[in-house]
Amino acid sequence: MTPRLQDAQVTIVGLGLMGGSLAAALTARRACRRVVGMARREEAVTQALAMGVIHEGTCHLAEGIGGADVVVLATPVRAIIKLIGEIGPLLPPGCLLTDVGSTKQAVVQAMQALPPHVQPVGGHPMCGKETAGLSAADSSLYEGATYILTPLARTSDDALALAREMAQAVGARPLLLDAPCHDALVAAISHLPYLLAVGLVATAECLANDTVWEVAASGFHDTSRLAASDEAMMLDILLTNRTAVRRMLTAFQDQLAGLAHLLETGDEAGLRAAMTAAAQRRRRLFQ
Amino acid sequence: MTPRLQDAQVTIVGLGLMGGSLAAALTARRACRRVVGMARREEAVTQALAMGVIHEGTCHLAEGIGGADVVVLATPVRAIIKLIGEIGPLLPPGCLLTDVGSTKQAVVQAMQALPPHVQPVGGHPMCGKETAGLSAADSSLYEGATYILTPLARTSDDALALAREMAQAVGARPLLLDAPCHDALVAAISHLPYLLAVGLVATAECLANDTVWEVAASGFHDTSRLAASDEAMMLDILLTNRTAVRRMLTAFQDQLAGLAHLLETGDEAGLRAAMTAAAQRRRRLFQ
User: Fold this and answer.
1) What are phi and psi of A19, to 5 degrees?
2) How many whole angstroms separate alpha carbon A211 and alpha carbon A182?
């Protein structure tokens, strides 16, 4: 029997930016009965309690998820996958198990092996910021964000409805996708841009001319922003989404080689057409 | 005899975002005696007069630059180069001729052929915004920006001092660079990021899946921002800086291939090291 969110205990495992912000949003909006936070480090639990973003906290997994109606895994993706492999027997019957990891195929695959008394739904809220950690947690982080849900064939309608309700309760817009489609899309709009930002900073670094940093203006600032993302999080994302990321990297390399060729041959009409197509799409996209 | 800025007539040729903002800044700060605006289109002149950013305006080049102590060319780069070839005989003796174009080698080369009574100094204020045109002009656009100046061997100290004074008068920080060094640096921090943004938008477009635009979040927003830049301006920039841009494209392609290889081979330590180096540089750069 799946409860309504307002009657549920939500346990959040991992109190970094994403987990901490989810806890803060649920607590601030009184969206559920009780928010329990679980973190490996005692100090994180103490800090979350002091910030008032959780009602109760613990460093012991079994203690944190005892009595939970919803468990949200909010660690880097490879830790999420490891946790899914261990947590099954500890979860109360009917418990919704979801996550906020940025890749979904590997997560959903791990969820398939969960014992039948657990209700799994993959999740990926499309929000974040440069600064990692609980101190950067923000109860408005999820507001207006697309919150992707990837249910499994075994997921009950009630469990999916509860996952949707939680996404909406923190101000996000739930969007159902299957995991392979999700991973291809985020490879294009998130993981590829991250690698471009890393490559851009490395290229500027190779000039070995400190004036380059002095003249770097807003264009460089924005294009390179993702390079400052949390490395532990991004490393797990890239390594659990290698196939889709490689495909997007190849597609991008082809596009860039095409632009380089137009420039090399001085094909002004071709270059202008490519630039105009991109400009029109970008302007339409974010008006 | 070079006047002080406060006694000078400054004529700005081209009343788009850059020229209009320069006019607005000079007028608002009462930095010079008189600001004359010249544009091809009558409506631009009328609009600039109505906005109060120029004291006088004209569509006739000879009329606009008659009596000028400073002439600033503020059109796309290839139009700047064409103007430099025509304007020499029309300029009053001792007149400072400068520009706000984003590439400098081709501009400085054209300036070398100016008649000896003209004082040329290449210029590139490192500021701008997505929206082109006079309506987007902003008297604070230059505030805090690095304003690169590329004097020629023939440029007098007084003329260079006047160019510096004008940059400072609109709130920018003058920085002297030679033209080839300028072009290499901006290829890395501006023209390469632009091409990456264009390639990124084109790659996402190739997915032919409209959900990609729905899930595009702040990371994609920032990394793709430059793709919305004014195409006429960017086309001139790329075509007048082909050598440096191609060199940077090749350097970037090598960096990206390196990242792709680390991912392909699952070299976690190597990938982490590259990501950490970029993250640390980016965080140090924009704190």
Assistant:
1) -65, -45
2) 41
C-alpha radius of gyration, chain A, whole number:
21
The CATH number of the domain covering residues in B182-285: 1.10.3660.10
Give the nearest partner residue to B263 out of A177, A238, A252, using CB atoms.
Answer: A238
Q: How far is CA B98 from CA A73, A240, B107, in A?
A: 59, 53, 10
Chain-chain contact of B215 with A175 (C-beta, under 8 angstroms): yes
Residues of B in Cβ contact (< 8 Å) with A145: 217
| pLDDT digit string, tens, across residues B164-184 | 999 999 999 999 999 999 999
> B213 to chain A: which residues are within 8 Å by CB?
285
Q: Per the CB < 8 Å rule, is A225 touching B223?
A: yes
pTM tops 0.90:
yes
pLDDT bracket for residue A1 (50, 70, 90): low
Domain limits of chain A?
Answer: 5-177, 182-285
Q: Given CATH 3.40.50.720, say whether it is the number of domain B5-177.
A: yes
**ipTM of the complex as predicted:** 0.91
Rounded distance between C-alpha atoms, residue A123 and residue A99, angstroms: 5
Q: Quick check: B220 and A193 CB within 8 A?
A: yes
